[in-house]
Every structure is written in C-alpha cells, then in structure tokens.
Amino acid sequence: MKWHNHFIILIAFILPFASSTYLSAQTLDERIANMRLKRQQLRCKQQDQSIRRYRALTHKLNAPISHIQFNETPAKEAVRYWAKQTGIPIYLNWKRFIDYGLETDIPISLNLHNVPAHVALSLILRQVSLDQPLHYNLRPHYLHITIQEEDSRHPILRAYNIRAIQHHVPDFTDAPDLSLPRNGRSTFKD
Q: All domains of the chain, ordered by start, with CATH?
C-alpha cells in the first residue's frame, strides 16, 4: 500500500507537465526540423523589428527641423542639440576624434529653417572637420558618427530583395538568324 501512494503522487506530479507534444513520438529528424523552424521564425521576427526601427530612424532623418540656430556653439553642444531635436540617439567617440586631431569645442555657426534633419547634421559635421570628412551610418537603434578613415575599416553589408525587379527572359526558338556575312556574301535569304 505504501508504494501505491508514492506511485499516485508521482503520476499526479508528472501528469500536468505531460502534453501531447511530449508524449508523441518524434524522430530525431523531426526534432531537428522543428528546432530549425523555430530558430528561423525567431530570426525573422528580430529582422522585422530591426527593419521597423531602421525605418523609424530614417523617417526622423528625413523629417524637417523647423529652426536650428547656432552662433559660435561648441560642436559637442550642437550635436547634442541636434539629437534632442530629432529624437535620434547618437553614438560618437569624442576621445577618438581628439586622437585624430579634431576639437570637440570647435565653434559651429549655422542658421537654418525647415531643412531635413540629415541636411542639418551634414552641415554641422562639415564644420566640425574640414580636413577629414565625418560620416554617419544609421543603425537600427542609433546613428553612428565616425571619421571616413575609420568608417572604411568597418564596411556595412546590406542585402536587398531583388525579386520584384527580376524578369524572366523567354527562350526564343523561332527567332530570325542574324548572323554576320561570311566571305562578303549575305546570309539573309528573301
């Protein structure tokens, strides 16, 4: 009687965790296929989130800034103000800029009305560095500002879906023969 009670307790403990998926027999290939499918679905979901974030930041970059005015404003403050106005997080390494000989407190003078945010940023960055052009790359979560030399060290790979522009060229079996003349004679026949 004692072992019977333990058996019932064991069954009562295991039964809630058992479901049809655990009780059904799966081959190893089926398990592997299911795991691959789940991983692929997770990757697609993450890519969709990244694409949505990237599009949102692109929209903010193209949105106009109503008014931006700098009068001998230090570069660090000008970039900070631009980021606050646009709502785009920025990553830039000021210490790295100093290593390349750029000053963080270089004065920026700019007066713009109703220009896209990316135009305003380009004009600010152009004033920060005259010798070494600064570049920005849009990432899914932030905007990365860097020096051109450093930017070329880290290329960004982008994949585009070209299915929409692909065109299948049919195989023409009844096309006319347009070969060039041989020995000065024409190969075309009337």
A: 60-151 (3.55.50.30)
